[in-house]
Amino acid sequence: MCTLEKRGSIFFLTLTGASKKDQEHRLNPTLIAAIRAALSEVRSQAVPGSALVTQAEGRFFSNGFDLRHAQAVAAASTAADAAAAEVINMVNLFRGVVSDLLSLPMPTVAAVTGHAAAAGLILAISHDYVVMTKSRAVLYLSELDIGMSLPDYFTALIKGKVGSSAARRELALRAAKIGADAAVRMGIVDAAYDSVEEVAAAAVQTAEELGKKEWSGEAYAEIRKSLYPDVCGLLGLEEKTVFPSKL
Amino acid sequence: MCTLEKRGSIFFLTLTGASKKDQEHRLNPTLIAAIRAALSEVRSQAVPGSALVTQAEGRFFSNGFDLRHAQAVAADAAAAEVINMVNLFRGVVSDLLSLPMPTVAAVTGHAAAAGLILAISHDYVVMTKSRAVLYLSELDIGMSLPDYFTALIKGKVGSSAARRGLALRAAKIGADAAYDSVEEMAAAAVQTAEELGKKEWSGEAYAEIRKSLYPDVCGLLGLEEKTVFPSKL
């Protein structure tokens, strides 16, 4: 599922999995709850200087919502649209993960060393900074390919984070599989590296540099939220004013 | 505090100061009022062809709100005075966004926090390469951004990565501009103002179109929209 560690002032949230299936880190209710529990723990331990790195083991960062889980729920149900209902359930549960990340009182970095598709892509770009490997990893907003429209907060987050309308079209309306170099050019990812080790090191270095600033976590979170008002509004994240503790 | 001059059709609003402290051009209630009075005078004298250049003497364009003033007003209630200055400064941004003529900021010194907002409240900004950085310092002092600051940044700074660098990284941003010296840059500011002035645009139309580009911040500032028609159709 996922593990949480702390090294120095950096928290490491790692998506884990033993089986090949688990290594897709599919966002089902169980994993969503585990991620939220970990983020809640991170929030409770936050101090100025804290930062979060999110990473995943194996070939995937996350392959999106767990459609097989939805089918399994449907198989056990007599309701007509049970599979769709369970997907909607996961869409709603996942709002919490995005909310948690957008309101986390510290800088956040996603280390993308495997494919990030659909909700998995959203998980990555919910972080302040994204670094990615050049090989064996693509960003893929797969909804169009499976005939599904985008949840409102997915679109709002993409609009807020992906600046160019051509890039948004490529991502959403072409369902392009985007490698790291293209992702950097399109402004979706901050930096691309050849190896998993380099990405991991870059993520830690970014987190440490940002942590050194020892920013007030509250001020950081409020300023971050103010940069993405549309998605925050949809997620019900309220704004508040934060003053320096000593003026 | 500040002076206002007119050379040809260009108005020059200059932030001045004798002491080292005054040369930070800190936006306290007194300077805010002086700037508003000057902009009001500019507005009253506006004709097609008018343009405004705002500049500042010394090492700073403006170093933001006057926090020492806030502490002097009320040592244990300084926050209230900062809020007062945030509210008073809304008027400066409103005045600039609704000014019926093109505006140019000549940034020859550091522009921090509200000072950066003052600069980008202008239509055009030119800047010296050395001895001047843009710095949205709020994160570094643990303060969130007033609503109209964020809305103005969103409207003026097109790239989400650039906005992140400015606001969420509190980066000190140099000009990457074409001008090495203050003199070159001042000349460029005047030249930009003169070129724009030559168009002799209807000030009313200019102001309405400018406001329509930044609807979010104008909404927050209570600047109403209106339709402007050519005087002769």
Description:
The structure is a homodimer. Chain A is of the alpha/beta class and 247 residues long. Chain A is built from 10 helices and 10 strands. In chain A, strand 2, helix 1 and strand 3 (51-56) form a beta-alpha-beta unit. The longest helix of chain A is centred in the middle third of the chain and has 21 residues, at 82-102. The mean pLDDT of chain A is 93.
Please state the average pLDDT score of chain A: 93
Termini of chain A, distance in Å?
A: 44 Å
User: How much is the radius of gyration of chain A in Å?
Assistant: 18 Å
Q: Strands of the largest sheet of chain A, in order across it? A: 1-2-3-5-7-10
Assembly form of the protein? homodimer
Q: Which pair of chains has the greatest number of interface residues, and how are they split between the two chains?
A: A-B, 29 and 27 residues
| Class inferred from helices and paired strands of chain A | alpha/beta
Query: Sheet bearing the most strands of chain A, described?
Result: 6 strands, mixed
Output the helix-strand order of chain A.
Answer: EEHEEHHEEHEEHHEHEHHH
Residue share in helices of chain A?
40-55%
Query: What share of the residues of chain A does DSSP label as strand, in percent?
Result: 15-25%
Residue runs with pLDDT of under 50 for 5 or more positions of chain A = none
Q: What would the principal axes of the Cα set say about the shape of chain A?
A: globular
Helical region count of chain A? Answer: 10
The count of strands of chain A amounts to 10
